[in-house]
């Protein structure tokens, strides 16, 4: 009897454990069931209640080899497997299996951009649109264009537009800090500077109507200065823009840039031609830049003034200085016309020759009172063993019925100890 009771107790104990397990399932299942679908079920009718299967509760996690790769032409698509392989996870609130996180793809793109900070791409255009099978593409696309300006210029360290080594690509942009050529300026904008070690200056941009041309950019230790931009044509008031100044050559070696020509002015009333820009100075070894020519002026009923020529730039140790620019011609139908003055020649270096002075412009008045030519520019001074530059010729004066006076020629420059004067 005792043995039977013991066996019965053992069976009851086992059944009790099973009942507890099944009871938990009964308690959980009705909470998930739709109360309107069937009447309340008691404990005795728990078999009729739909319960989640063991397969749903203990569904095995799908094997994951790699997260979806970004289909793109950029190197982001070549992600290592260990960075993208992550196991899917089950959402604790919905019970649904969610795909692996794609944050690692964006992290990989950011890591790749560290190398792009130092090296430029092969093109200046922004990367092509990304084709993707996951949400990682927007993040990757945002990172891949972060080093580009809105115009497509690369803003890294090395390459086109690079801040350390590279040529300027935007209007007026400087070359790289160490090596690179400056970019040409936009309308009326100065050209960019060359790199500190090596690089040419960019050319100044041409001026808009009435606006001065941009100055040429300076070179670094080695390189040539940029040319000055041409002055803009006359505005509504008849005033033209001046030419830009030429950039200086490299401190150790390089030629100065030429000055820009002054703008021309054509107007029914007052007309004033633009002045030519001065030439840039050379470095220790190099030639000075020539001055720009003055702009011509033409008026039908008022005064016309030709623009003055720009001065030549100084030369270096043994180079030749730049010549002065010629004065602009002037003409008026009913009023006075005055030709522009020629620019002065630059001075020679220690052993260099001085530059020649520019010629004066011609002044022509058809029925006005006076037509006067511009004076010639003076020649530059020679170095210790250099020759002085010749003075520029004076401009002619012409008048149909009134007086006319030609301009005075420029004075020649002095020569050095062993050189001749101009």
From TrEMBL:
Domain of life: Bacteria
InterPro entries assigned to the protein according to its UniProt record, in alphabetical order: PGRS_rpt (IPR048996)
Spans annotated as Disordered: 66-102, 259-422
Record field: compositional bias (Low complexity): 296-305
UniProt biased composition (Gly residues): 273-295, 306-328, 339-422
A Pfam family the protein falls into: PGRS
Signal sequence segment: none
Protein name: PE-PGRS family protein
């Amino acid at each position: 009897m005792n043995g039977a009771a013991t066996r019965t107790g053992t069976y009851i104990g086992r059944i009790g454990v099973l009942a507890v397990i099944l009871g938990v399932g009964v308690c959980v299942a009705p909470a998930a069931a739709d109360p309107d679908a069937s009447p309340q079920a008691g404990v005795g009718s728990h078999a009729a209640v739909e319960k989640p299967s063991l397969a749903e509760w203990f569904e095995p996690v799908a094997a994951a080899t790699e997260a979806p790769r970004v289909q793109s032409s950029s190197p982001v698509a070549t992600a290592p497997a260990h960075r993208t392989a992550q196991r899917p996870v089950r959402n604790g609130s919905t019970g649904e299996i969610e795909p692996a996180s794609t944050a690692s793809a964006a992290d990989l793109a950011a890591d790749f951009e560290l190398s792009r900070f130092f090296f430029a791409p092969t093109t200046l255009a922004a990367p092509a649109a990304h084709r993707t099978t996951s949400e990682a593409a927007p993040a990757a696309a945002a990172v891949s264009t972060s080093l580009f300006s809105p115009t497509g210029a690369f803003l890294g360290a090395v390459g086109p537009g690079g801040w350390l080594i590279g040529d300027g690509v935007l209007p007026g942009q400087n070359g790289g800090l160490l090596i690179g050529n400056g970019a040409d300026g936009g309308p009326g904008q100065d050209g960019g500077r060359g790199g500190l070690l090596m690089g040419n200056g960019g050319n100044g941009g041409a001026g808009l109507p009435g606006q001065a041309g941009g100055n040429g950019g300076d070179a670094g230790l080695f390189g040539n200065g940029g040319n000055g931009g041409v002055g803009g044509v006359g505005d509504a008031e008849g005033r033209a823009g001046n030419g830009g100044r030429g950039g200086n050559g490299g401190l150790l070696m390089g030629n100065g840039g030429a000055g820009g020509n002054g703008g021309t002015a054509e107007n029914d009333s007052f007309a004033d031609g633009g002045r030519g820009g001065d030439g840039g100075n050379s470095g220790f070894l190099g030639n000075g830049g020539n001055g720009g020519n003055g702009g011509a002026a033409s008026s039908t009923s008022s005064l016309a003034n030709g623009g003055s020529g720009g001065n030549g730039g100084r030369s270096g140790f043994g180079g030749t200085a730049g010549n002065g620019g010629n004065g602009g011609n002037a003409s008026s139908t009913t009023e006075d016309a005055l030709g522009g003055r020629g620019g002065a020649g630059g001075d020679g270096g220690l052993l260099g020759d001085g530059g020649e002075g520019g010629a004066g412009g011609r002044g022509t008045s058809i029925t006005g009172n006076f037509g006067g030519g511009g004076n010639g520019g003076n020649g530059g001074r020679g170095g210790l063993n250099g020759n002085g530059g010749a003075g520029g010729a004076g401009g002619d004066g012409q008048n149909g019925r009134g007086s006319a006076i030609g301009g005075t020629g420029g004075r020649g420059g002095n020569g050095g100890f062993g050189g001749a004067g101009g």
